[in-house]
Amino acid sequence: MTDKEREEAQPSVDPEQAGERGQPGSEPGPIEGPTTVLVVAAHPDDPEFGCGGTSALWASQGKEVYYVVATSGDKGSSDPEMTSEKLVKLREAEQREAACAIGVKKVFFLRLPDGELQPNLVLRRAIVKAIRLVRPEIVVTHDPTNVYSDQGINHPDHQAVGHATLHAVYPTARDRLNFPEHEREGLRPHKVREVYLWGAREPNVWIDISESFDAKVRALTCHRTQIQKPEELAKRMRERSESLAERYQGDGQVPKLAEAFRKISMTR
Questions:
Q1: Which pLDDT tens digit goes with each residue over 169-191?
Q2: What pLDDT was estimated at residue 17?
Q3: Phi and psi for 206 in degrees, rounded to 5?
Q4: Domain edges within the chain
Q5: Can you tell me the distance from the alpha carbon of 113 to that of 131, in angstroms, rounded to the nearest whole number?
Q6: Residue 263 CB neighbour total at 10 angstroms
Q7: Over 70: is that where the pLDDT of 134 sits?
Q8: Which of 141, 142, 144, 167 is the most buried if burial means most Cβ atoms within 10 Å?
Q9: 231 vs 57, residue with greater confidence
């Protein structure tokens, strides 16, 4: 389905009567066309750091990948000559370039203030609208339960986006009486099949990104305002991917390079 077709889609019959997915208590319907993935992130470059290899791999396999980026990273610079207005333009351009390197179909910017995100109804409404527009089978986002580690503290925007996205997936996007203005715009309720959380303390899925690792690195190097030493980036990313692969707990072949997630299979 093209972007235009998604935007123009109108419910021709009552979705409850039709047994369409997205209704309370219903099972998801059959997938028509390519599997669709929605990555929801707090800042430009978060999608590439968190799931760039997986997104590139899925895109190469024919899945349709979309990004929602909550902020435009308007605080992310230590340059004394930089302004937030200038930084927004730079970082949005960098994110679009990086998304292109991954194979993403479209990037949606919510343009909320960097460093000020809250898991409130403003953020949740925007994510729900994206879910109902894109209608993804899979949603990928930050693990909101990862607050700190021995190496540092998780950004509060990451936690806010993770919480808001989980609440958007269930039950808000599913239930048609939430944000009824969406239905008036032709956006139907939608039930997501699977959620993948990156940065999870206890992952249960490891994805081998050996084939897509170079695409992940290429995409990350597009974020020139953030990558201070691009020549060291590939080495750092490889070490991180090898470290995640070493934690593999599956039954199959151990991946060489991996991204790890907490996978949630939605049953209601």
A1: 999 999 999 999 999 999 999 99
A2: 35
A3: -120, 130
A4: 32-265
A5: 21
A6: 16
A7: yes
A8: 141
A9: 57
